[in-house]
Amino acid sequence: MSNLELRPAEQVCTVGDAPADVEILTAREVPLGGPRAMTVRRTIPQRRRSLIGAWCFSDHYGPDDVSSSAGMQVPPHPHIGLQTVSWLFAGEIMHRDSVGSQQLVRPGELNLMTAGHGISHSEESPASTPDHPRPPTLHGVQLWTVLPSGDAATAPQFDHHADLPVADVDGARVRVFLGALQVGGRELRSPARTYSPLVGAQLDVPAGTRLELDVDVAFEHGLLVDAGEATFEGTSVPPADLAYVAPGRDRLVVGAGATPVRAVLLGGEPFTEDVVMWWNFVGRTHEDVAAARADWTAQLADRPDGETGYVDGAAGRRFGRVDGYDGGPLRAPTLPDVRLKPRRQPPR
């Protein structure tokens, strides 16, 4: 998914020491695209906290009725220095990218794209056909993880994982899509490749029950609540908000009140490198981001019909080209005229 804000802020994310209590991060609404755009609820990055481990971006959307609309329509756009994690609760999304991938993702499956030095991709709700009607609802999360500097220039790649580990314990269900988690005395480990110690999992907790998880004491964790009356370490967490806890806990408790809870657990070792995030780019310096924007802009051209297209030979350039999407690529926003002040993580 692209960050389609017209004036995206440059952010330098750093790491310090965390408070002992549960911190609630309230989501803000961000429109994706034009007048008929879908709206997402973004919890990170924000002023209060930019990273949870290597997790650097969290968009939560739906449930949206896409039975009579275009649904998700995110034209081709570039990325560097990150992995994109597509995870659905309902519906379908078609992914296309510049390394030639075309993959439908459904609930319980993982689409994982490693941008590395540079990749571009599109995401859209697939068109309905007589043999395959489009599901009427779209609901899920789009997440990013930052790549460590030693892997930031790795070759781009795409992976799809349909068979992910799941466990039922005391009526609750845990499905791990990235990293590993101890559940009910056994380890659930995702087959997906990651570049730093982290975990991502969907948790479904029945009403009136609680789920206890054994976790890595070196990890910080966040719980993004999708639905239900949730508590995290005894603190109430409203739907669409994200609760944060610092490293130092070897067990976490997620509770459900009068209604069942569905949530996403994000965790990882605190990321010790400063990173600059702007639009769809994650770099180490302002110059990294400016160079990526310049490279993407050099691949684009104005078409006679007024739309944006690709220059000749774009497929062989840094971000390649995406074929199969019905529309032109996105142009990058204008960089700020001055370097913005670094955004600091709160003390941990």
For the biggest sheet, the summary is: 8 strands, antiparallel
Counting DSSP H or I runs of 4 or more residues, the number of helices is: 1
Order of helices and strands: EEEEEEEEEEEEEEEEEEEEEEEEEEHEE
Enter the CATH topology name.
Jelly Rolls
Second CATH tier, the architecture: Sandwich
Q: What percent of residues adopt helix (DSSP H or I)?
A: under 10%
User: Using only CA atoms, what is the Rg?
Assistant: 20 Å
Question: Which CATH class is shown?
Answer: Mainly Beta
Q: State the end-to-end distance.
A: 30 Å
> What is the percentage of strand-forming residues?
over 45%
Structural class: mainly beta
Total strands: 28
Name given to the CATH homologous superfamily: Jelly Rolls
Stretches where pLDDT is under 50 for at least 5 consecutive residues are 11-20
Pfam families: Pirin, Pirin_C
Family: Belongs to the pirin family.
Protein name: Pirin family protein
Region (Disordered): 322-348
What do you see in this structure?
The strands form six sheets. Strands 2, 14, 15, 16, 17, 19, 22 and 24 form an eight-stranded antiparallel sheet that branches. A seven-stranded antiparallel sheet has the order 3-4-5-12-7-10-13, with no helix packed on it. Strands 6-11-8-9 form a four-stranded antiparallel sheet, with no helix packed on it. The chain has a single domain (11-268), classed as Jelly Rolls (Sandwich). It contains one helix and 28 strands. With 348 residues, it is mainly β. Mean pLDDT is 91; it is low at 11-20. The radius of gyration is 20 Å and the shape is globular. β15 and β16 form a beta hairpin. Pfam families: Pirin, Pirin_C.
